[in-house]
């Protein structure tokens, strides 16, 4: 897939890491909001 898109695997991995970090931050924020609302 990376070869077909002509993208280096390293940049794809880095984007995935950024995406995962954002997701975990969103999950943490949602948990904090839940505690705040209760």
Automatic annotation (TrEMBL):
Swiss-Prot/TrEMBL keywords: Coiled coil
Biological process terms in GO annotation: photosystem II assembly; protein import into chloroplast stroma; protein import into chloroplast thylakoid membrane; thylakoid membrane organization
GO cellular component: chloroplast thylakoid
Pfam family, one: ThylakoidFormat
InterPro entries: Thf1
Keyword Coiled coil part of the UniProt annotation: yes
This protein's record includes keyword Coiled coil: yes
Protein name: Uncharacterized protein
Lineage: Eukaryota, Viridiplantae, Streptophyta, Embryophyta, Tracheophyta
């Amino acid at each position: 897939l990376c070869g077909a898109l002509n993208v280096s695997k390293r940049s794809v991995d880095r984007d995935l890491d950024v995406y995962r970090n954002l997701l975990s931050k969103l999950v943490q924020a949602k948990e904090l909001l839940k505690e705040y609302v209760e």
